[in-house]
Every structure is written in structure tokens, then in C-alpha cells.
Amino acid sequence: MNEKALKTLEYNKIIAQLTDLAGSALGKELCRNLLPSSDLDTIRLLQKETSDALKRIYQNGSLSFSGICDIRGSLKCLEIGSSLGTAELLRICKVLEVCSRVKAYSRHEHNEDVPDSLDEMFDALQPLTPLSSEIRRCILSEEEISDDASSNLRQIRRSMKLVHEKVRSQLNSMVNGASRVYLQDAVITMRNDRYCIPVKAEYRGQVPGMIHDQSSTGSTLFVEPTAVVKLNNDLRELELKEAKEIEVILASLSALAAENLEALSDDLSLLTRLDFIFARASLSKSYNGSEPVFNTRGYIHIKKGRHPLLDKKKVVPIDIYLGKEFDLLIITGPNTGGKTVSLKTVGLFTLMGQAGLHIPAFDQSELAVFEDVYADIGDEQSIEQSLSTFSSHMTQIVSILEHADQNSLVLFDELGAGTDPTEGAALATAILSNLHRRQIRTIATTHYSELKVFALSTPGVENGCCEFNVETLRPTYRLLIGIPGKSNAFAISGKLGLPSEIIDEARNLLSEQDESFEDLITDLENSRVTIEQEREQINEYKAQIEALKKKLEQKQERLDTSRDEILRKANEEAHAILRDAKEYADTTIKNFHKFGKENISVREMEKQRSQLREKMSSVEKNLSVNKNAPKKKTLSAKDLHIGDSVKVLSMNLKGTVSSLPDAKGNLFVQMGILRSKVSINDLQLIDEAVITGPHLNRTGSGKIKMSKSASISAEINLLGKTVDEALAELDKYLDDAYLAHLPSVRIVHGKGTGALRKGVHNYLRRMKHVASFHLGEFGEGDAGVTIVEFKK
Predict the structure, then answer these.
(1) Longest C-alpha distance within the chain, in Å?
(2) Rounded to 5°, angle at Cα 252 from 247 and 257
(3) 470-507: buried (b, 16+ CB within 10 Å) or exposed (e) per residue?
(4) How many CA atoms lie within 13 A of 57 on its CB side?
(5) At what angle do helices 25-32 and 261-286 cross, to 10 degrees?
(6) pLDDT digits (tens, 9 = 90+) for 645-671
(7) Cβ-Cβ contacts under 8 Å for 370 (sequence gap 6 or more)
(8) Residue 219 — pLDDT band, cuts 50, 70, 90?
(9) What are the φ and ψ backbone dihedral angles of 176, each rounded to 5 degrees?
């Protein structure tokens, strides 16, 4: 990839973001050196690694690689047999501790049946716990070795402590005794690693010993008294022994590390590589990226792509495709309308994808593998080189035309600008024609109408535009492919207050052909808006049809379940009746046989026969259809009034009439939270119990019913209320709803912080007439709504 395109498309800013996410200096170095690849296998491997790392981050959380040190120099010393210092051994220990942490992270919840591209790297890590534990045991810090590092060191330091105590005891007796008058201060100090006391110069002869130093004024001499010379010598010898023993300990630890030289080198390499991979995954997570699908056919299809350097909350996603039906896309539209951003998005996505980075777009977005990307974007004017804007652009275009081929992606911003419009348009057309003939994938932005005509009249070339809202004088930043952009100059000028006579004169100066072309574009735009609106309506209808289909399937499933249950109960009852009849018949036959053999009175036989007749009559009565039962009354439109209680026979639900029947006999019935259109033939009037008391009214049928049953709503909205306000209103509402015989109600409390929902649920648990409650399902309001079922 040429360096200029990387800079122009701001690839270096993406790399800077990636570098900040790496946890180690070696990982940051790999990030800084990341360049796009043109090998498809390499690209797919890099993308797979990024995707697998991102999946682990979502499953197990982020992974920190801080603590990885560059120990390559130390490993080189171990390779030639040198001993390492405390700082170098501690750095090796830190690397091994990071290795252990990363190894533990890899054991978190992970589907081992589906191995990913990182399993092999995680498995190859060797924490070398004995080595790191031994280093930590022996070395406390870069300046301190533990007493427990060896038994000799412990013995030497114990001896040193005893000698220290003897020296200080001896000197304390001098400082606090008769020699105090000869001393400048009653302190014990160190000079040349030996204990001394500060003696006044005039009393030099009164304190025998060796002079090690004197003050800057010469009034104080630092004397090592003769009494402690031998003790100081002993202390010095012990210090030399201590240093020698520490060298032995460091040599032993270095030898232990040298035994694992290859494992240490592999660990450092693997940890650096994993740090680099997880930095790519963290970058993808930061802008909600996805893995693009790569091809070698030159086909690009970006779905809802967002430029990664723009605020993801404000940027408008774009859909853009190139390379299948056309290989040249010409984008037109107003300034600041998003043309350059669309151009840079395609180029930057290509560079990022070929570098193994995810792109901020929908899944299954496709990118092509290009050998090189060329971009002529921005003002390349150079005062030092005496180049105008046009000259600098043309210099760049000449270079692009010379080097670009079928495996290249070429991006032009404002092609042909900076010179006479007629000549610029002609040059732009010729340049794009040349690239089109050479089948080079190209995207160009322009204001020239001639290029719009060129795209309309040339096969394999397509128009595109960035939408502009003339009413608000603001671009919408939506990219529309297949529609040439309209200049909107007259409309914008009129909105900004330019006199209409000037605009009319400008229109008259336009040629008839130009005016017809602009009118054609306007018609196309109006047609597009109409089609989009109709498409939205169709999608709404589809959603409604799907919901109705699902409802009917659920209804049919309930009916099938009810039918099976009824048949099962009928079979069980029939079986019980037959069994009972058989037992009774057996008993009766036995009795009659007994009557024939024994001398039993006629009265007793008549009694048995009467019991049998009563039993058979009872069974017949239960099995036969009650002919005297009232038949279902066929309802007419004048039998029903709004607010009447009815039963929907097909659904076995009670409800309230909410509309009068139409010409076809269909009307709406409110059944709890469900409002359904049913046939009048599917209804049966329900006689309400007569209730006396205040606030009651009489219906047309002469029955008295509570007025609440006709007016209470099946839904209450508590949005915007505090918990106390909501519960007070909810308490009254639930009482009214229960008295109105509503089977269920819908409470709208919203999601928010969850405090209102929690308060409502706690209240419902204490309500005696509440059978159950649950959060709304998909289509009912989800977690922002609670459905309450009353006890029957």
C-alpha cells in the first residue's frame, strides 16, 4: 500500500487508537507496524483471530497484558552463560506472572468442542510457576534480597546484626559517657562505610582513633575510635561475604532461568502476539465492529457502514456497493453533504479489513482484496513547489493512472475541480472513461452535470447522491445509489432570501436541455420518496399480518388442546360408566340367581328391581341431551348495546361490547387487554348479577349493572410518576378493574432505573385478588409493561 493513501484516508489515526489499547511496549510496537496485506489467506487468519478474541472478551471480559517486559536482552545474556541482576530476574518473573494470568483466562467458560484460532497459542503458554515462585522467594525488590534466599545468607546477616549491635553499644557508651564533652554532637554517623563519632578539632588527642573525614569548616573531625576498629573490620568482612553470597544466589537463579530459555522466549513471543490480537478485538468492541467477508472478485457491499473516526452516536450509516453490476460510481450532492465521508469510508474500510481489523458495519458486509488503494482527496496545493490546486491534483492523478490496475481501488474527490468547468468536466469524463475501460474499481465525487449524464448513458457506470433536505437546508448524509444528485442551488438561494426575480432570471439563462435534466432528477427524487414511503407501509402490513398469523396459530393450538382434553375426559367418563354398569349388572344377576334358589319374598325382588330401574334412569338422564334445556338465542344487532357483557364462544372468553355490529354483523369486543373483531353469531349475552347501590345505572335490557364495568380501561399508564404517586393511583385502579370483572389489566411503568417496576411488583405481591403477574412479552411492551391476572 502506498504511504500517501494511508495518510489521506487517515489509517494512521486508526493505528494510533489501536496502539493505545495494547498493554505492553512490544504489543504497541506490533500495532504501530501493522499494514494492510494483499494475501487473502493472511487476511482471513487475521480476521479470524480478531473475531475469536472479541468473542472471548464478550464471554469472559477484557484481558490485561500489562506487566510484559522486553526481556530479549536478558535472554541473550542467559544464552551466552552470563548471570542476571535482580532487576532482570524480576522482569522475567513479571512476564511469567502475566503468562500465568493469561493461561488462567483461557480456562474460563469456552466451548472446547468448537476450537478457535487462539486455542493453540493459549495451550503453548508455559507459566513456569516453579521459576517465578523461586525468583519471588529470593528477591524482594531490585535493591533487596530475602534473608531466606539461602541458609548462608541468613547466617551472615544474623552475624552482621550482632556486630552492628556491639558497635552501636560501644559508641553509645562513649557518646553518653565521659567523652561527651569532646564531641560536637551526641550522634553516631557513618563515614566510608565505618561507624564514627563527631569530635571537636581542639580535642583531637582526647579521643584516640582513625580520622575518616572532617567538616567543611574544619571544626569537626569524624573519628573511628580505636575501641571499635576491630568490630568495624569484622563488619566489613561480613559485608563482603554477603555480597559474594548474593552473587551465588543470582547465579543459581540465572542458571535455573537458562534451563527454560526456549520456553521463556516462546512465552514472550506468544504474549506479545496475544496482546496485539486482543488490542484489535478491543478496538472492534469500541465501535461495535464486525468481521467483513472478503472476496477476490472486486465486489464491495458495505451495509450500514459508519466512519470509525466520527462520533458513533451522530454519524449516519451508509449502504454502498460496487463491482458487481457497475465498477464506476459517481457521487454528486451539496457541499458538507457527506460525499467525502462516503469516499473515505470505503477506502478506510478496505485498509482496515486487509489489516485484520473489524469494520463498523453490519454483519456479512463484503470487501474486496486490492493490491493497492489510490486516493486523491483534499487540497494538495503547495506554495513551495509552485503548484496550484488543479496542478497538484493533476500531478496526483497522473501518478494514479500510471500505477493503477485491475487489482486497485481508486478514489477521487471533486475530480476536475480548480479549473474552467467545461474543460474540467471534459477532463474528468475522459479520466473516468479510461479507468472504466481498464476495469478499475473507481469512486468519484463531483458537482458536474456532465458526469451525471455520462453515468446515465454509460453501461457499468452508476450515479449516486447524498440526500439533501431543501426545507431545512440541511443534508441528511444518506447515500442513495442509482439516483443522480440535484444541485438545489435555486431552492437553497430562495430559502436564504435571494429575490425571486433574480432566481427567475437565472432559470431563464439555463439551456432547455439543462432545465429538462434537472426536472428529470426532481421527478426521480419524488418517485424515490414515494416508493420508500410505500415500502415502509408494506413492511408495517407484513408485520401486522405476521402478528395475526401468530395469533391464529396460538388460537388453533389452544383449540386443539381443548379438544384433546375434552375427548380424554369423555373417554374416561364413558369408561367409568361402563365399568360401573358392568359391576351393577353382575350384582343384579347374582341376586336374581339367589332369588331363584332361596325362598325370598316378592317384595324383596320388587325392591331390587326398583333400585335397578332408578339406577338406569339416573344414567340415562346424565347421558341424554336435556330436551328442555334452553336453546342458544340468535342475537340481532338491536339486542346489543355498547357496554353489554358477552361471551365469545369460539374463544371461551368474556368481554364487553365496544362497538355496534356493522352491515356484515361484525363488531369489536374488549376482552381484557385483547380487543378483537368477531361475528355476532359467535356471541352470547351474559346476564349480570343485579347489584343495588349508588352510582348504578339501568341498561336497555332492564338489568342493573355497575357503571364502572363500561368505563374502566384495561390499561393504566404510570410513566413519569414517583413510586408513591403511582402506587396510590394503582391501588384505586386495581379495585375498580376487579369490580368491573376484567380478567386482566396492563400496567405501563416503563424501563428506566427499574425503581417504579420494583415498587409495582412488590405492591402486587400483597394484593389478595391478584392471581399472577408477569412482564410483557415481545409485542406487549417487553420489560416496560406488567400484565396482571385477577382471581376468578
Answers:
(1) 157
(2) 125
(3) eeeeebebbbbbebbbbebebbeeeeeeeeeeeeeeee
(4) 22
(5) 60
(6) 888 887 778 888 888 888 888 888 888
(7) 38, 298, 350, 354, 407, 408, 409, 441
(8) confident
(9) -100, 5
